[in-house]
Amino acid sequence: MGCFPWQQGVKKSADIGRIASKHVKVTVSGKNSYSLKNSRAVTLSLKKPKIQNKLTAIENMNHVNDKENQNNDVEEMDTQDVETAETPNDAGEGDGGGENRQLNGEVQEQAASQDTEMGEDESRSEATFRYTVHNVSKLKDSELSPPCIVRNLPWKIMVMPRSSNSGPDRTIHTRSLGFFLQCNGDSDSNSWSCFALADLRIVSQKDGVDSFTRKIQHLFFSKENDWGFSHFMSMNEVLDPEKGFIKDDSIILEVHVIADAPHGVSWDSKKHTGYVGLKNQGATCYMNSLLQTLYFTNQLRKAVYKMPTEGDDSARSVALALQRVFHELQFSDKPVGTKKLTKSFGWETLDSFMQHDVQEFLRVLLDKLESKMKGTCVEGTVPKLFEGKMVSFIKCKNVDYGSTRIETFYDIQLNIKGKKNIDESFRDYITTEILDGDNKYDAGEHGLQDAEKGVIFASFPPVLHLHLMRFQYDPITDCSVKFNDRFEFSDKISLDPYLQAAEATRADYTLHAVLVHSGDNHGGHYVVFINPKGDGKWCKFDDDVVSKCPKQEAIDNNFGGHDDDMNMTVKHCTNAYMLVYIRDSELKNVLQEVTEEDIPQELSDRLQEEKRMEQIRRKERNEAHLYMTVNVVLEDSFEGHQGNDLYDPDKVQYRTFRFKKDTTLSDVIDQLAESLKYPVEQIRPWPFNYRSNQTCRPTLIDFEADLYKFVVDVAENVNPFNIWVETVRPDSGLKSLPTFDKDLDVLLFFKLYDPKHKRIHYCGHHYIPVAAKVQELIPVLNERAGFPPNTELVLYEEIKPNLTEKIENYNEPLEKVLEELMDGDIIVFQKDEKDNIMYDLPTCQAYFRDLYYRVEVTFCDKTIPNDPGFTMELSQQMTYDQMTRAVGQRMGIDPYLLQFYKCQNYKDSPSHPLRCTYEGTVKDLLSNYKPKQPKKVYYQILSIRINELENKKQFKCVWVGPKLKEEKDLILYPNKTGTVADLLEEARKQVELSENGSGKLRFLEVNCYKIVNSPHEDTLLETLSTSANKTFRIEEIPREELTLAEDEMLIGVGHFHKDIYNTFGIPFLLKIKNGEPFYKVKDRIQKKLGVPEKEFVKFKFAVVIMGQPQFIKDDSDYTINTNELRPALNQGGTTTLRPWLGLEHVNKAPKRSRYNYLEKAIKIYN
Questions:
Q1: Tens digits of per-residue pLDDT, 425-469?
Q2: Where is this region: Disordered (predicted)?
């Protein structure tokens, strides 16, 4: 940020801030940390100007006496990187300390303050303090003054000697005095900031000599906590007694600082002002300003409290969320959050990082409140407070005819461009507009008449919102621009002169709030100044920080304007954009006190309960690191699972428990037993373990070693900790679980595969010795499956996804047969039957292979925006043909009438259509997707079979009826090698021709609302080019245009406004004849368009040849020359631009609203 140097009492003539600078390294000895005997250098990073000693043009900017200040350098303000420390009180701390003490004198002398209340109000916004530097001629190191407290932060004067080399060969050594203001220099925090303006002054000690002052403004923060001038004044001037700044080798430095309330430090807004602020979510300062304004409209706040919200959803109710914010603003001691409010709006996170239009947001919010208040005891509060009325009128000058219409308003938009103040804007608002010439008023039976049009106010509301139109659309740049012009307003206004008739009470208003924007149309910062009680005592609400401020800061400093119009301490881009006035006669009513008794008890109780629950949740979050989650799965969760392993982690319903991490395993088991209602001896926990082969199986806990370990150690720091709790089966008759020998036994799980129904059935678990033979499992499996004991079975081991191995030797021990036998291994079995071969998936191996390639795919109709579609489970190995048959069967449609599209990998939209001969598989179709990402394929239902379609060319055309209205969009499929005639024949099948029409169609090319070509019927379709602005049109040829004589032709007719490139509407062809008077052509045009006479007389006509319009001024003399209007051929034999007939008139079609690509309309969805 640049500096603003000027003389005291002399107006600045130029701004020399931000002079180009570079860093030079200067070494000074440490001040008090080291003695001279073993001192080490402290490196300062100083900014040295590129421009030095070029004083002629800039002396007047910095000095009172030109001749006396010729050696003073000019440089930019700088942030010092040096670590400074005050001189120790004790001179005995090493030789260096004593020498410094002796040379520099009483550097610890208390600073003198000109503010008598310095010690009384540390939250004050400004103060003046001094610091006397002794033994200046011997000054070697930096010094800091004692602190002066402003805005609860310590401010110190920092002074130091500086030196630099200048001149062409940099041999001229110059010494200067560095003078800085430091803020909060001892803080270790890096989150604070404070904006301040300051005068840095060296005080004159000689009569007749003015003090020398330089000004700064800066946002102080941890990395730039001091700001000032590396070369405030040359040492020659400082030490020259004739200059008047030194006396007895001492100088007096003075600072007058004005600071905003700081952010990021413990600024107690409630203590200093009685009010609290709102937290900023990212870009919600505009909303915060508006919410504070509505909150201090006390009558509205009281009505908001009384809205019935007992049955409202806590997360979706806008009314309840606003009640919550208002309640916290009234009773909280800390800044209030608005996330629940914006969430109730239905806004996503992005909405909170976008600045919206304040006026639009206010209207939407008030509309939402008005709707919520209907049918309640506070119905009508919003219009009662904010609604005014105005009368729009049109009055003829020469006949007794006119019209009036009463309109209501909730706010008034005032034009500020070229206006000095509110009175000028209101006078401009009610200035009448003269309707004459081409813009005459249609007075019915009196015809077109000269008239005046305007508005006048019928009534003003108790609370008047004035939007100053600082943001306006600029058609040249096609974006919004901000006007920073000066616009004055006062704390009292009278609006009686702008009323149609006097009201019951005078329309005198008191200023209640000033909403201010700093920045440009691309963004910036919003604050609001509010006069809460209407008594002229103002506060500044800057998001979470609230501070008292003088009237001048709230009003005068926000008029706007440029440097020449305003105080130099105010940024020209900071100005008011909305004003809130309250009618004097309603002031006490609108600002009536809102007490706790005004809040319904049900609402208070609900909000208190919410707060209590929030405190509990906050406590849980704060203590979350002390806890861990244990997810319990019981055996019934394994039933019905059709996939690998024992359950699906994404679908299972865990029983969730929360334990302190230092809870022992023994205590965990006790609590689980109590919760599950089993004796401890009837449960056994088995943690799930993720194996290296991508499976998840139960594993054993070593109870001897782990029973008294902390659960976090047993879980090996895995959180959440998933376990299967084995329990005694209720029908087993056992009083405890059987013992399990970790060395001799193994835990196995069983699954039965049914090839007929392609289903897996869970058959429980079993402890068995590792030395037991596989044959010993057969009776157990038959019993579990309900088969006869001697049923022959085929056994498989489920090793990992898509790997299931058949067990061949049943007479071998399990530890030899099963691969790496472990607890949690799964045996899959099925009947050994010859009939199995007739099934699609005869073995569990085939089943799990199919499962491995199975995928859920969602099919969406590409012609329906945001179509949720339907989901099918398919195999990734399916061919395109198999997939189309499956989808066709699911939809009940011929698969050859379906066309499919892959999803684009960079956005969720269809890519190019797939050919019906596509040779890839479903896996290839989904290659863009990650494993767990939802898969999507788009489709379109065709009117012809896809194998036929691929030999055809798709054409999008518009059908225009005889009344020149675009009636229908056509999608046609002629053969790729076809002609325009084939295309017209296809169109004939889809359109309805006129009853008495010619029955013949024609094909037109339209570009930028002009007919550019009418291809012959034998034109090949493949020769027709397409572009973004070109459309193809089909229409029925009028009977009168079927045949053309030699002296007749068809000419294109188009509409434009002011400029021939500003075309619009539906162009058409018109038959004209050589030598024909133009007035006859006009008659046919009017008849074809069906335009009333009073509108048609405003049309102007131009013949456009080679892009140049030739306006027809007198149609009675103008005759048609078809030779001039026929398209000419250029040297290449191609047709040049076709001449056309232009109709110049106003485009009355509704214009599309313009949006910046980052903007979107404000909506409150709930």
A1: 999 999 999 988 878 888 888 888 999 999 999 999 999 999 998
A2: 58-102, 107-126
CB burial of residue 358 (10 Å; 0-12, 13-18, 19+): buried
The amino acid occupying position 309 is T
**What is the rounded CA–CA span in Å between residue 499 and residue 493?**
14
**Which residues lie closer than 8 Å to 423 by C-beta, 6 or more apart?**
493
Distance of CA 614 to the CA centre of its chain: 27
CB burial of 1062-1081 (b: ≥16 within 10 Å; e: otherwise) equals ebbbbbbbbbbbbebebeeb
For 911, the token pair is 């890519």
Neighbours of 709 (CB within 10 A): 15
For residue 439, the 8-state DSSP code is G
- Whether residue 155 contacts residue 140, with contact meaning beta carbons closer than 8 Å, is answered with no
Nearest to 216 by CA among 9, 83, 18, 45: 18
Q: For residue 1030, what are its two tokens?
A: 């070109």
* Residues 6 or more apart whose Cβ sits within 8 Å of residue 263: 192, 193, 194, 542, 543, 544, 545
- pLDDT tens sequence across 692-749: 988 999 999 998 899 999 999 999 999 999 999 999 988 888 889 999 999 999 999 9
Structure tokens of 366? Answer: 């008030």
- Tell me which of 256, 525, 766, 1057 is the catalytic residue: 525
State the first-to-last Cα distance of the chain, in angstroms, to the nearest integer.
44
> Cβ(685)–Cβ(672) under 8 Å?
yes
The answer on pLDDT for 423 being more than 90 is yes
**Residue 525 annotated in active site:** yes
Confidence at 142, pLDDT banded by 50, 70, 90: very high
Token couple for 212: 């020398």
Give residue-wise pLDDT tens across range 81-107. Answer: 333 333 333 333 333 333 333 222 333
Q: Which of 40-44, 134-138, 627-631, 902-906 has the lowest mean pLDDT?
A: 40-44
- Please state the rounded mean pLDDT for residues 1013-1041: 87
pLDDT digits (tens, 9 = 90+) for 882-897: 999 999 999 999 999 9
Instruction: Name the active-site residue from 148, 285, 844, 860.
Output: 285
Contact by Cβ (8 Å): 128, 114: yes
Task: For the beta carbon of residue 321, count every other beta carbon within 10 angstroms.
Answer: 23
Compute CA distances 48 → 14, 111, 448, 629, 699, whole Å: 20, 30, 74, 60, 71
For range 767-793, the mean pLDDT: 94
To which residue do tokens 């609590």 refer?
A: 671
Alpha carbons within 13 angstroms on the beta-carbon side of residue 333 total 3
- For 761, list phi and psi in degrees, rounded to 5: -120, 125
Nearest CA to 953 out of 969, 970, 973, 971 is that of 973
pLDDT band, residue 479 (cuts 50/70/90)? low
- Catalytic residue flag (residue 3): no
* 899, 913 contact by CB (below 8 A): yes
CB contact at 8 A, 1095 and 1146: no
